[in-house]
Amino acid sequence: MSTYKVNEIQVSYREKLSTIKSDSITNSQAVAQLLYKNWDKKTIGMHETFKVLLLNNANKVKGIYPLSQGGITGTLVDLRILFAIVLKTLSVGMILVHCHPSGQLKPSEADRKLTQKIQRAGELFDVRVLDHIILAPDGGYYSFSDNGDL
Fold it and tell me: HSE of 48 in the Cβ direction (CA atoms, 13 Å)?
């Protein structure tokens, strides 16, 4: 009789900064400013980067997770990794964000389709996509929510 060994899976999440003490997110301008302040200004104009802002039920920021980094005109987003992070952190809301190195704030058709796909997947887990922000290297932004695209 042989014994089978398997890996043990451990899931953990630890806050360095208290979410309870942070401010609630209330509008796209505050989100864009927070994201821009936490973005590497040396690379925002070089390549697309996709991040997710994770929120609790009171819309307080749990953290920002850098999901992918791509080329000049695009980056790949793996939904399995995105939702692994969302579920691991027990987040109930998220704000998607990526930069356009060109400074063009108009969302592409691929941006729109990805947002819809993530939104549909979020519904399965009762996780809300509150917005998708496109950031420009100068700090300008486009909000899907403000423009009726969400």
Answer: 20
Under 8 Å between Cβ of 129 and 122: yes
Read off the pLDDT of residues 16-49 as tens digits, 9 standing for 90 and up. Answer: 666 666 778 889 999 999 999 989 888 888 899 9
| Contact between residue 52 and residue 94 where contact means Cβ atoms under 8 Å apart | yes
Give CA separation, 105 vs 34, 66, 100, 135, 138, in Å.
18, 20, 7, 7, 11
Task: Provide the token pair at 13.
Answer: 């999440």
Ramachandran sector of residue 78 (left: φ over 0; alpha: ψ -120 to 50; beta: rest): beta
Reported confidence tier of residue 53, pLDDT bands at 50, 70, 90:
very high
User: Is residue 44 a contact partner of residue 135, using CB atoms and an 8 Å limit?
Assistant: yes
32 with 131: CB under 8 angstroms?
no
Q: Is 109 left (phi over 0), alpha (psi -120 to 50) or beta?
A: alpha
